[in-house]
Amino acid sequence: MRTVFLGGGRITSALLAGLCLANFRRPVLVHDRNPHKLRRLREVYGVSIGTDLHRAVDKAQLIIIAVRPASVADLLRQIGKVGRPLYAVSLAAGIPLKNLRSRLGPSVRWARAMPSPASRSGRGLTALTFDRGFPAAAAREVRTLFGKVGSVLEIPESKFDAFTVTYSSSHGYHALATLAAAAGKIGLDRETALTAAAHALADGIVAWREGNTSLTALLHEAATPGGIAAAVMQAMDRARYGRVIERGLKAGLRRARENAKKN
Q: Sign of the CA dihedral 140, 145, 149, 155?
């Protein structure tokens, strides 16, 4: 199935990097209005490129909508009605299938995917949901494509926005930066602070994912009652750490719903 990415930005670059790492050999074409961006993608990943939108779509069996949510409606208007069977996967956060299915005509079958930029290293996580009528064979192709760059979860569309605001690797980067900055304020140099914070966040989570010990048991093991780790967690809980995280996720949900209203 010939895959055409419509949009040559960061998420497309991350997916292409992961696909190259996985030795994905099927034909891929990337369309973008920016020829410099396209040339860079061709040089780095060896993909075919094109600045003509309609020609790119004409060559596709599967199109991946990889533009910002605010640009989706305009892109689909430019494509217009498609008079042949075509499969489309939208990566646009917050835009539901009901808003997409009528845009290109009834011959286009839609799915949504939410892939992580960590796909670049083959350690991505992608949520998928398929519209009614999406053929099983085509769905397998889509799962295979995203499975090349990491784990795949198929979830109901009703959970897509909650997944989107929860799974982002930005949480880890933000936590790493925040924890390291706080460590700097209590006396660690930047390099040591980052090393300690990265171990606290990444290595502990890897141990949980690759082991058989429950998260509750690991928390109990790491935070001895009356010890330093327990004191740290208690102080954070008193400062309503959990409430701050919840507020952040709810802000993301509001933005996702705004995207749906605009498209």
A: negative
